[in-house]
Amino acid sequence: MELLKLQDRKNFDTKKSKIRVYLASPFWSPEANHALAQMEEVFMDNPNFEAFSPRLFGIGDGDTINDEKWDKIFQENVTRIQWADYVIVNTTGTKKDANGNLIGSDTGTIWETGASFAWNKKVVYYNPFLGDNKFNVMLAKSGHATCTTYEDLVEFAKNPEKQIKYNGKTQ
Question: Fewer CB within 10 Å: N-end or C-end of the chain?
Fold first, then answer.
């Protein structure tokens, strides 16, 4: 499958006037949707950023999903990850365990994260529901920043070059 080339694209800016961010996230639970909405709020209308959220591009209400549609979504997302300076990753769990803790991860979001790291993108993790729970050591060590509150995310947006290392419990 041939990926779209940036110079062939007409629907997004290829000039380097703003910081480009790709918002990687599951949207399969109310909590994940809440965190993604916060990410969109911080980056979509911020004049310093040009942001892309797959939730706003991909599957529309009532769309028929077929291989052609999935290919288009996959190609667009890969192209946008390569285009981005930063990939902001929502690590909010997609289901709850017996104690009510959010667990599980979206494999598509994890794929986007690994590809981003391999392509030397600055990866920023966001999980406002993490609390005192353990964070995956591979994610903690690969992140340019880890934001565990909305306020952390807002502060990151003010100074994206500043690294915010995760210092909590890992697994």
Answer: N
CA 18 to chain CA mean position, Å:
18
Number of C-beta neighbours around residue 10 at 10 A = 6
Largest CA distance in the chain: 50
Nearest to 32 by CA among 87, 103, 137: 103
Q: Which two tokens stand for residue 60?
A: 């529309």
Task: Note the pLDDT tens digit of each residue in 67-115.
Answer: 888 898 899 999 999 999 999 999 998 777 777 776 777 889 999 999 9
CA distance 150 to 136: 20
Among left, alpha and beta (phi > 0; psi -120 to 50; other), residue 152 is alpha
Q: Is the pTM of this model over 0.70?
A: yes
Q: Is 21 in a helix, a strand, or coil?
A: strand
Alpha carbon dihedral 165, 166, 167, 171, in 10-degree steps, equals: -140
